[in-house]
């Protein structure tokens, strides 16, 4: 009793402590459950700490505003349910068609394409991926890889025939390079293209091909058996001999439809051979160079979205009678994320500007992709832990971001392989292959 009286006495003298205890009692009552915003109402971009817009042109600023509005208004309210079901929402194609004059063809020029600057295109992808990395991946594969392959390696007639419809999102494209046995070592791929009268016959297997299940136009990279070089072939969706299986049970980017595709004597007419890319470096390598710049932006974007969700959550969620945002440890984690986002952005921006000026080497692009995917992974892990239990469910934004980052770490060249490209440049020694030799069976 004596102790209780002492405590009551202290309380009387400490109104702040009293109100905290009162808040704890209230928050434990079911009717007073804390209200927490969910990700369908996506939070505003608050990670723009170094005022990125200050150094952007009017076109670039506008690209950000437009893509941000599109992603938060049209995509955010619908994305979680489709991510959970691992389905691509068909209506998103309609949203993109409705906005084709803004997004169609991205940075490509002519043929009905938008013709944005590369920086504006990267910022578009960034604002899309801040909200949903699956949408950004769909868009990059369609415009940045499939359309770009035709743009870089196709004849004038092929560009006229395919690009305008793709720029309107009337035809969707995918990019089939990876094979079950040749991922990082893609230049050794085994799919073959054999010359026959009037065209080519493709045989082989491709894996992980994004957008493929509903693509009209498949850009398939195969070994030309006449030259032994890897070249591109346009395969139309109805081609006989092509079978496709959706890859099930994928953890990240669940809205993106990845497929395992088998080609058995698939005929491609001569006018669908992408003859201008005469080997790996001048064909697929060129397309990957630009798309890797885009991918360097994805960790920036996903981390921005995770930061925005985490910041809002910390401000709304109370424990021990106070908002989580008021605790020093939480502020340090947030600021660590914020600092990482600033450095990732500056790296991505720098390499994009260098590419725009024609000054970037592949090893500089691979460094940006590798470095940002490494740091982005740390950022989303921080966001996930900041949200505690709710960091494990998709309702509050960060669990999906956490999962999606994993794919970015691996696709468009894994972290390791991109590092090896830069490593080769800085040391002068290629370290992709080692001295391992299989034991010969006697
Ligand atoms: C969600 C998703 C979407 C994708 N979309 C597409 C697409 O649209 N089109 C397409 O063509 N491909 C696509 N890919 C494939 C992607 O590009 C490959 O997964 C990637 O290149 C890695 O190849 P792999 O999975 O076969 O791994 P592997 O090459 O088997 O590598 C496994 C591990 O070994 C490491 N490793 C490999 N070689 C070395 C080495 N020499 N030294 C050190 N470490 C090494 C890798 O870094 C990795 O950690 C996609 C992949 C994913 C996950």
What this model shows, in words?
The chain has 442 residues and is α+β, with helices and mostly antiparallel strands. The protein has three domains: 52-167, Acyl-CoA dehydrogenase/oxidase, N-terminal domain (Butyryl-Coa Dehydrogenase, subunit A, domain 1); 173-274, Beta Barrel (Butyryl-CoA Dehydrogenase, subunit A, domain 2); 284-424, Butyryl-CoA Dehydrogenase, subunit A, domain 3. Helix content is 51%, strand content 13%. The strands form two sheets. Strands 1, 2, 3, 4, 5, 6, 7 and 8 form an eight-stranded mixed β-sheet that branches. Strands 9-10 form a two-stranded antiparallel sheet. Strand 2 (192-196) and strand 3 form a beta hairpin. Helix 6 (118-131) packs antiparallel against helix 7 and helix 9 packs parallel to helix 11 (362-386). The longest helix has 33 residues, at 284-316. The protein is globular and about 75 Å long. The chain binds flavin-adenine dinucleotide. Residues 141, 175-178, 183-184, 208-210, 253, 258, 407, 410-414, 416-417, 420, 432 line the site of flavin-adenine dinucleotide (FAD).
From the structure above, extract its key features.
Butyryl-CoA Dehydrogenase, subunit A, domain 3; two-stranded antiparallel ribbon; alpha+beta; Butyryl-Coa Dehydrogenase, subunit A, domain 1; 442 residues; disordered N terminus; Butyryl-CoA Dehydrogenase, subunit A, domain 2; binds flavin-adenine dinucleotide
* Oligomer state of the chains in this structure: single chain
Radius of gyration from CA coordinates: 25 Å
SSE sequence, one letter per element: HHHHHHHHEEEEEEEEHEEHHHH
Taken from the alpha-carbon principal axes, the silhouette is: globular
Number of helices: 13
How much helix is in the residues? Answer: 40-55%
Strand count, sense and closure of the main sheet? 8 strands, mixed
**Could you tell me the number of beta strands?**
10
């Amino acid at each position: 009793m004596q102790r209780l009286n002492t405590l009551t006495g202290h309380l009387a003298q400490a109104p702040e402590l009293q109100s905290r205890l009162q808040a704890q009692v209230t928050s434990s009552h079911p009717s007073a459950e804390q209200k927490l915003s969910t990700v369908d109402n996506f939070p505003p971009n608050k990670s723009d700490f170094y005022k990125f817009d200050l150094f952007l042109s009017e076109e670039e600023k506008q690209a950000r505003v437009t893509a941000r509005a599109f992603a938060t208004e049209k995509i955010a309210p619908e994305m979680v349910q489709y991510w959970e079901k691992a389905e691509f929402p068909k209506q998103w194609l309609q949203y993109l068609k409705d906005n084709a004059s803004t997004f169609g063809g991205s940075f490509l020029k002519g043929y009905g394409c938008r013709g944005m600057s590369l920086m504006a295109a990267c910022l578009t992808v960034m604002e899309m991926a801040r909200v949903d990395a699956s949408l950004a991946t769909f868009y990059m594969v369609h415009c940045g890889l499939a359309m770009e392959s035709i743009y870089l390696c196709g004849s004038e007639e092929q560009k006229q025939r395919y690009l305008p419809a793709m720029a309107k999102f009337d035809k969707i494209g995918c990019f089939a390079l990876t094979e079950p046995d040749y991922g990082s070592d893609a230049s050794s791929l085994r799919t073959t293209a054999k010359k026959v009268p009037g065209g080519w016959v493709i045989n082989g297997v491709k894996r992980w091909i994004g957008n493929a299940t509903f693509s009209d136009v498949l850009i398939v990279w195969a070994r030309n058996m006449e030259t032994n070089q890897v070249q591109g072939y346009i395969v139309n969706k109805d081609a006989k001999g092509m079978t496709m299986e959706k890859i099930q049970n994928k953890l990240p980017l669940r809205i993106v439809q990845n497929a395992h595709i088998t080609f058995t004597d698939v005929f491609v007419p001569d006018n669908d051979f992408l003859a201008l890319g005469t080997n790996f470096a001048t064909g697929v390598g060129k397309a990957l160079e630009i798309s890797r710049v885009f991918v360097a932006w994805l960790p920036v974007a996903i981390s921005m979205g995770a930061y925005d969700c985490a910041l809002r959550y910390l401000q709304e969620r109370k424990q021990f009678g106070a908002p989580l945002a008021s605790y020093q440890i939480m502020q340090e984690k947030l600021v660590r994320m914020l600092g990482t986002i600033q450095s990732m952005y500056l790296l991505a921006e720098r390499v994009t500007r260098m590419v725009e000026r024609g000054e970037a080497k592949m090893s500089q692009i691979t460094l940006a992709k590798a470095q940002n995917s490494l740091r982005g992974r740390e950022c989303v892990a921080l966001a996930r832990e900041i949200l505690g239990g709710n960091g494990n469910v998709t309702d509050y934004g960060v669990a999906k971001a956490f999962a999606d980052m994993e794919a970015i770490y691996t696709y468009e060249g894994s972290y390791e392989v991109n590092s090896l490209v830069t490593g080769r440049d800085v040391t002068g020694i290629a370290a992709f292959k080692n001295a391992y030799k299989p034991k010969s069976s006697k």
